[in-house]
Design brief:
The structure holds 3 protein chains of 3 kinds. By secondary structure, chain B is an alpha/beta fold. Chain B has 8 helices and 10 strands. The radius of gyration of chain B is 18 Å and the shape is globular. By secondary structure, chain C is mainly alpha-helical. Chain C has one domain. Chain C is 79% helix and 0% strand. The longest helix of chain C is centred in the C-terminal third of the chain and has 41 residues. Classes of the chains: A mainly alpha, B alpha/beta, C mainly alpha. Chains A and C meet through α6, α7, α8 and α9 of A and α4, α5 and α6 of C.
Chain lengths: 224, 251, 215
């Protein structure tokens, strides 16, 4: 099963590298988001306290929503999702392959966003790189886990573009809260290790629960 | 005949569709259809658009569950989660199932590996040779004409040597040469003992190719006949009369 | 039908029962709204639970009955949640001076209410096949309860809170249990009615389909 997930992931990455459509548009959208926030929130050259953390995670949430929608829209066009479902691959493998593809895409976006935000908002996001990466990784995984399942579910539905955020954002509230608060704790002048560890633990628990739930229900939810 | 060793225990000689219906809310897509098709036979699902052909094919491909009735592969009842069965089914859909951003070779290798074929690249190469596309193997599928894409898609559907082959409107948009090649390929499949179910509204092509014909209208089976000929006149006659009661009536 | 009559009577009498309750010293008359607020909050929780359980059963068995129950329960959740969210701020305004406090319980209730809303939007606009999707959403929403509560709780209070929600002593007397009984009855009556509506719709669909088959 891992082999199949890896196969699907490699295929997705090849397709993406060739066309670049989702990667570039997501990245551009995320950067534009950050700029809009800058115009909205920065007053006299100073951002609000902890503003950088919030902006980072909102940009990830919006960009992630866009990327998810586009990724599955592409599968819908040649009905290749149907081809994947027809293959004798266990459904969880298909889910896993798609999930990892989204995570890689978002990771690439974050690699650009973090330095950008650190620069624009004078936020010391890279002061504790290990923890920053840990919070980002676990938060992105949680968001993508729920998002991949919902986006796959919605492929055959009407109004799918508008329904994805409607479904996704309430469920990923804990991820956003934990991500923002964890990142904000990293920005404090004195490093508050306990707080960061707490939020990281919450994210890991969320990831464990929801990736497992998604793997269990993917089959049931994709068949009619 | 299957390529993936671990699924070799599942095999079947016939596919039986027994009083199968499928509805979506109030919309009746397929209503009480019954037929059987055995190895080495080509069955045609004929009817206008919206007759239920695609829905029936989806059910045969185990993607959709009938709301009543049953589909059996040999003695095995079909359930949607049946991984072993999916290894023996090949589908050529209306939308071709190809990734335009990958080359023909990459598409075939991907699906070969997905279906568990040990030497995916070798199988992919052989398939390309069979389709006569080996010199375009490393071109992106997006640069292919409709006929060429169809050929690649057909190879994709057949790369794991499936026992059951489902084709949804395969003749759409093909020129004469491609059509002849497809017909020859289907006849070859029949000789190899595969079960072929073909949905089309192109009656002239189906003439002479089919071993059985099932006529569908509004989801209902209005006629079925073995060894059909003069399909067009049969079609005209059959589509304008009232539907049969449930249960097949041979001609 | 009898249940509905009893329920209606209970609600008609409830103002009298509430009026006879002890007059709460610190907040006065406004505190009486608590007798509606609390039971509807409980019914909101119960509805969410029923929806979650029914959705899981639907995902496992595919039996349409569970799907109908889940949908009805989701509607109940939105209704009772609405009552809770309207009565809450009305009480809060008089009691504490603000309409809304961002504390753990109110905020997580709000988020869960939004999940119930999302469920209904999905059922309405998702097109065919949205039953399974909605069940998946309900499952995730139910699994999320603990996460939402914990994250919202610590979002607010991990730094010293700016305002302290006062603890409210009240007597769990007869009026409260009376109202809880009334609301529970209301929940059951409405749920049954709603499920029956869906059942009749399903029966109508299958009649329509079978009539078509003979025609």
């Amino acid at each position: 099963m891992i082999r199949l997930a890896w196969l699907i992931l490699r295929k997705d990455l090849t397709v993406e590298v060739r066309s670049g459509e989702i990667a570039y548009t997501t990245l551009f959208f995320a950067v534009t988001c950050v700029l809009v926030f800058a115009f909205a929130l920065v007053r006299e050259g100073k951002p609000p306290d902890d503003g950088a953390a919030g902006i980072l995670w909102i940009a990830i949430a919006f960009a992630g929503n866009l990327a998810l929608g586009r990724a599955f829209e592409r599968e819908r066009q040649a009905e290749t999702l149907r081809a994947l479902l027809l293959a004798p691959a266990p459904r969880p493998a298909v889910y896993l392959g798609k999930l990892l593809g989204i995570v890689v895409l978002l990771a690439a976006t974050e690699a650009v966003l973090v330095p950008l935000i650190a620069l624009l908002f004078q936020a010391r996001l890279l002061a504790h790189p290990f923890w920053m990466a840990a919070i980002l990784a676990s938060g992105t995984l949680g968001f993508a886990a729920v998002g991949t399942l919902f986006a796959a579910m919605l492929v055959r539905a009407r109004s799918r573009d508008v329904l994805l955020p409607v479904l996704l954002y309430p469920i990923t509230v804990p991820v956003i809260i934990a991500g923002v608060r964890g990142t904000a704790a990293l920005l404090q002048p004195e490093f508050e290790g306990d707080i960061v560890r707490f939020w990281f633990a919450l994210l890991i628990a969320f990831d464990a629960v929801f990736v497992t739930l998604s793997l269990w229900t993917f089959e049931s939810v994709m068949t009619d | 005949m299957s390529a993936d060793g671990q699924h070799a225990s599942v095999t079947f000689d016939r596919v039986s569709v027994d009083d199968v219906s499928r509805h979506f809310g109030r919309r009746r897509a397929v209503s009480r259809v019954t037929f059987t098709v055995a190895r080495g036979q080509i069955l045609g699902l004929l009817g206008p658009n919206g007759a239920g052909k695609s829905t029936l094919l989806a059910m045969l491909g185990t993607l959709l569950r009938p709301t009543s009735g049953s589909i059996r592969f040999g003695t095995r009842d079909v359930t949607t989660g049946d991984v072993a069965l999916r290894a023996l089914i090949g589908v050529l859909g209306h939308d071709l199932f190809l990734y335009p951003e990958l080359t023909a070779r990459e598409n075939l290798s991907f699906f070969a590996a997905l279906y568990g074929i040990a030497d995916a690249d070798g199988a992919s190469r052989r398939a390309l040779e069979q389709a006569g596309l080996i010199d375009r193997a490393d071109d992106l599928v997006s640069s292919f004409s409709r006929g060429m894409r169809q050929r690649v898609a057909l190879e994709r559907a057949l790369i794991h040597q499936p026992r059951l082959v489902l084709l949804d409107e395969p003749f759409t948009g093909l020129d004469d040469a491609s059509t002849a090649a497809l017909v020859a390929r289907l006849k070859g499949l029949r000789e190899d003992g595969a079960i072929v179910v073909l949905a089309t509204h192109d009656l002239d092509l189906a003439d002479g190719l089919l071993d059985e014909a099932v006529f569908l209208r509004d989801g209902r089976m209005v006629h079925s006949v073995a060894r059909p000929d003069a399909l067009r006149s049969t079609y005209r006659r059959v589509m304008t009369r009232s539907p049969m009661p449930s249960g097949a009536e041979g001609a | 039908m009898r249940a509905a009559t009893v329920c209606a009577l209970m609600f008609a009498l409830s103002p009298l029962v509430i009026a006879s309750a002890d007059y709460e010293s610190t907040m006065g008359l406004v505190q009486k709204i608590f007798y509606y607020h609390m039971p509807s909050a409980w019914m909101f929780l119960v509805s969410g639970l029923v929806c979650g359980v029914a959705s899981v059963r639907f995902l496992i068995t595919g039996d349409a009955r569970h799907d109908r129950t889940a949908w009805a329960a989701a509607e109940m959740a939105v209704i009772f949640g609405l009552v809770t969210i309207v009565t809450g701020p009305l009480w809060a305004r008089k009691a504490w001076g603000t309409f809304w406090i961002w504390d753990a319980r109110t905020t997580s209730s709000l988020v869960q209410w939004m999940v119930a809303w999302a469920y209904l939007i999905l059922r309405k606009y998702g097109g065919p096949g949205s039953e399974k999707l909605a069940a998946g959403l309900a499952l995730f929403g139910t699994a999320n309860v603990a996460f939402i509560y914990v994250s919202v709780n610590y979002w607010r209070t991990i730094h010293p809170p700016t305002s302290v929600v006062p603890k409210l002593p009240f007597t769990m007397g007869f009026p409260l249990w009376y109202c809880v009984a009334a609301f529970t009855l209301l929940f059951i009556v409405l749920l049954k009615l709603r499920v029956r509506l869906e059942e009749q719709r399903a029966t109508l669909d299958s009649l329509y389909l079978s009539m078509d088959e003979q025609g």
